[in-house]
Amino acid sequence: MARILELLPELEGSEQLYVARLMREMSDEQAEKFATIYRERRRDPTMSLVFTLIGLAGLAGLQRFFLGQVGMGIAFLLTLGFCYIGTIVDIFQHKSLTFDHNRRKADEIALMVARSFPKSKDDADSLPPGQEDA
Amino acid sequence: MLRRMATTAKTLSVEAYIWLAALLALALTDPTTPPLIELCPLNALGASFCPGCGLGRAIAHLFRGEWLASWMMHPLALPVVAVLVARIGRLAHEAYQRSLHCSPSPHQHA
């Protein structure tokens, strides 16, 4: 938990918990690489909210494009966010929508980091016994 | 298997349930009766055109197999249903994957 506060202090709530759990399995080097890539690829929930609110002004679905859902984005755009209903639903769920996206990215990056930067033997040995279960 | 499905249902995000409920509600709607409440805020403000209006009735026509009526009501009904079903499928797939990872013993890899 201390590591995530140091490397990715901007995370909050369930995203923080989720990424902290991923980081527990990583060596220090892996955690640093992960943090750099994750910061580039994660989406900020506040930005999602801003994009959703633009939908109230008539340009709906930007939040869906922002989160990589092109199909949903086009559907929102062409139907004015299902007559505003979809837009209003998205205002309420902007946090979980963004978290879904970020969780997927975090999983991808964790896998990529584990493959590209394998844990060195020293790192694994230097952990005091029992710490990996903490 | 059953327990895995229950876990999937529990971890399935609210969004999937919202779209499912919307499609279900439209499947049970009779598109020919006038709506009980007018949901569209543009319409409530007196606008004569809204790009989304008629979509609900068009999807309800689709569920009854009335393709022509659906197209006349709103030509985007079929693509919208396809996109929503794809989104629900993707969310369900992710929830299922997560239910695999959150199996009873989380430390089995250690």
Order of helices and strands of chain A: HHHHHHHHHH
Largest interface, and how many residues on either side?
A-B, 21 and 26 residues
Termini separation of chain A (Å)?
11 Å
Q: Write down the domain tally of chain A.
A: 1
Structural class of chain A: mainly alpha
Largest sheet of chain B: none
The biggest sheet of chain A amounts to: none
In angstroms, what is the radius of gyration of chain A?
18 Å
Write out key terms for the chains shown.
heterodimer, A: mainly alpha, 10 helices, elongated, B: 110 residues, mainly alpha, 0% strand, disordered C terminus
Please characterize this protein's 3D structure.
The complex is a heterodimer of chains A (134) and B (110). Chain A has 134 residues and is an all-alpha fold. Chain A has one domain. Chain A is 73% helix and 0% strand. Chain A has ten helices and no strands. In chain A, helix 4 (45-56) runs antiparallel to helix 9. Chain A starts with a helix and ends in an 8-residue tail after the last helix. The model of chain A has no long low-confidence stretch (mean pLDDT 87). Chain B is an all-alpha fold. Chain B has a domain at 10-30 and 52-103. In chain B, 63% of the residues lie in helices and 0% in strands. Chain B has six helices and no strands. Chain B has helices at 2-11, 14-27, 41-44, 55-63, 67-73, 77-101. In chain B, helix 4 (55-63) packs antiparallel against helix 5. The A-B interface holds A 69, 71-72, 74-75, 78-85, 89, 93, 96-97, 100, 104, 132-133 and B 13-15, 18, 39-42, 50-53, 55-56, 74, 76, 79-80, 83-84, 86-87, 91, 94, 107, 110.
The gist of it:
Chain A is mainly alpha-helical and 134 residues long.
